[in-house]
Amino acid sequence: MSIFIKEFVAKKLKQVSVDELLYHGKQYGFSLSKTDAEQIADYLKKNAVDPFHPAGRRKMLKELARITDEKTAKKAQKLFHQLIKSYGLEHLLE
Question: How far does Cα 7 stand from its chain's mean position?
Fold first, then answer.
């Protein structure tokens, strides 16, 4: 089951749209411009991202901080951990 979940998340990250990023940004209190959302979506489409592996998470958050700012990247990291915990998927984090 864990492989299925990891593959599902990876596929969703590759397919995320600018509108989805803007919507979820508002929903979770992130300040994203349309340009930020476009750059994030482009990065996710072009790069294999593994948010469940520490190195993959660091790389993704470092790029997010470059595109937006450090505060937004830290907020995203905190949200990711909250979501993982709320679904009882902590065991998927390496």
Answer: 14
What is the CB neighbour count within 10 angstroms for residue 45?
A: 12
User: What is the reported pTM?
Assistant: 0.83
Helix (H, G, I), strand (E, B) or coil at 50: coil
- Quick: pLDDT tens for 20-61: 999 998 998 888 899 999 999 999 999 988 888 999 999 999
Q: Could you tell me if 65 and 73 are in contact, meaning their C-beta atoms sit under 8 angstroms apart?
A: yes
Tokens for 44, please give them. 């996710």
Question: What are 75's two structure tokens?
Answer: 């907020």
Strand, coil or helix: 64: helix
Q: Which amino acid is at 67?
A: I
